[in-house]
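Help needed: design a sequence for this.
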């Protein structure tokens, strides 16, 4: 086919995927492609997939079908975690032109330079090396929103949690240097970005560098170096394993004017028995210690928690352990996931499969607890005077912004507020669970 002139993207999954999609998009734009909306009928579609969310195959197929509705002649390329794990299966999906693995996705525009579609009835071309070849760290960041940027500083994982395919999809832990991250942040500051969210697969494991993945630096050094960059108003740490969230990191954030008092700390289970079956590298006592230390240093800190329910072997008593543990912790919200079997992992071979109905019931219970925790956290802050950074999203005449500790604030749309910080007093929680505020001062 003739070289495409337009390209559209669709991203499934995490913030890391969004930062990588944005980086791939910039490569295409540098080659002269016009980046267009998904529904615009692009010549080329790039779909960045995820293996963590449920029904990866179904979601991939649906997005491919929708792309071809907009342009039946489009070249469709699939990248991302699912593409690395199941390249042949994806290549057989009708309409897929090419599949690229973890080591190839950032070379897509060069590998597929001629963009030749396969013959009718033939599977798409597969360009997927063994995951052992994905050893290079490729920097990436989201772009297009002057308020917030997701900055990839680490990739891959050396852990072997029994439920997780990420090491198979992304390879071993690796990152750039502190100096290279600081340089990228300084360049982002020149574009007017106000907030940067640090992202990675196992963010706290930052520091493994070079072909041999030598331990040259650590995440504490990165946080301390970024705290000295004056051009960015806010940094957030997207997610960090509790065993890697050191006291040095916590004290640095507590003393910082740039790192926000907001932590997302995966727990996965409040049962030590289940944590052992999951092959997690901590137990609930350590987790509770980390939460207590955060609240000691930063009483207003927001703490989010990842939880998996219905893991093999999880009895009613084990789930009750998790529920009670979370109920007693001073946390702010939960991200709750029903356990989902993943091929090539240990967990599906474990005894004690939990029925889907029970998984759903437990998920509902914890999501209800999350709403209670979030509302309590919000109400604790009524009367607080704080800065709100407003975002660019507008819905039904309302815009939203975030406080330093991640309280979502609703306000009537004002174009002058977009991307700006304003000093406000938090005055109440509205019917949909958003904080309302009143003006205290002038634009910062």
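Sure. Designed sequence:
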């Amino acid at each position: 086919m003739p070289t495409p002139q337009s390209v559209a993207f669709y991203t499934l999954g995490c913030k890391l995927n969004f930062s990588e999609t944005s980086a791939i998009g910039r490569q295409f734009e540098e080659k002269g492609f016009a980046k267009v909306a998904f529904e615009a009928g692009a010549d080329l579609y790039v779909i960045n997939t995820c293996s963590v969310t449920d029904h990866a195959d179904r979601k991939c197929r649906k997005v491919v079908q929708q792309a071809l509705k907009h342009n039946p002649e489009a070249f469709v390329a699939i990248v991302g975690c699912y593409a690395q794990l199941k390249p042949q299966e994806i290549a057989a999906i009708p309409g897929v032109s090419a599949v690229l693995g973890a080591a190839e996705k950032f070379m897509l525009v060069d590998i597929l330079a001629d963009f030749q579609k396969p013959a009718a009835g033939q599977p798409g071309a597969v360009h997927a090396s063994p995951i052992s070849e994905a050893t290079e760290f490729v920097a990436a960041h989201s772009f297009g929103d002057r308020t917030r940027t997701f900055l990839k500083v680490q990739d891959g994982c050396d852990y072997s949690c029994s439920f997780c395919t990420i090491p198979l999809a992304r390879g071993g832990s690796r990152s750039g240097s502190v100096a290279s991250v600081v340089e990228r942040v300084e360049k982002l500051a020149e574009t007017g970005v106000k907030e940067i969210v640090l992202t990675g697969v196992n963010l706290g494991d930052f520091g493994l560098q070079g072909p041999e993945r030598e331990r040259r630096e650590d995440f504490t050094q990165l946080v301390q170096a970024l705290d000295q960059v004056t051009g960015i108003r806010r940094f957030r740490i997207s997610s960090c394993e509790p065993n890697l969230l050191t006291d040095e990191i916590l004290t640095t954030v507590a003393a910082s004017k740039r790192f926000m008092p907001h932590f997302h700390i995966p727990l996965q289970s409040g049962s030590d028995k289940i944590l052992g079956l999951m092959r997690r590298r901590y137990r609930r006592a350590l987790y509770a210690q980390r939460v207590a230390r955060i609240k000691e240093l930063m009483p207003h800190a927001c703490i989010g928690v990842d939880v998996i329910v219905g893991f093999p072997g999880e009895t009613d008593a084990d789930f009750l352990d998790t529920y009670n543990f979370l109920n007693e912790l001073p946390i702010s919200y939960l991200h709750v996931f029903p356990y989902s079997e993943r091929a090539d992992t240990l967990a599906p071979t474990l005894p004690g499969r939990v029925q889907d109905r029970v998984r759903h019931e437990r998920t509902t219970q914890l999501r209800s607890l999350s709403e209670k925790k979030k509302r309590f956290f919000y109400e604790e802050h009524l009367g607080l005077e704080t800065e709100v950074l407003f975002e660019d999203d507008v819905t039904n005449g309302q815009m939203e912004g975030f406080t330093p500790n991640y309280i979502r604030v609703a306000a009537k749309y004002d174009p002058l507020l977009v991307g700006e910080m304003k000093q406000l007093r938090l005055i109440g929680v509205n019917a949909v669970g958003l904080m309302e505020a009143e003006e205290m001062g002038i634009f910062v």
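The mean pLDDT is 93.
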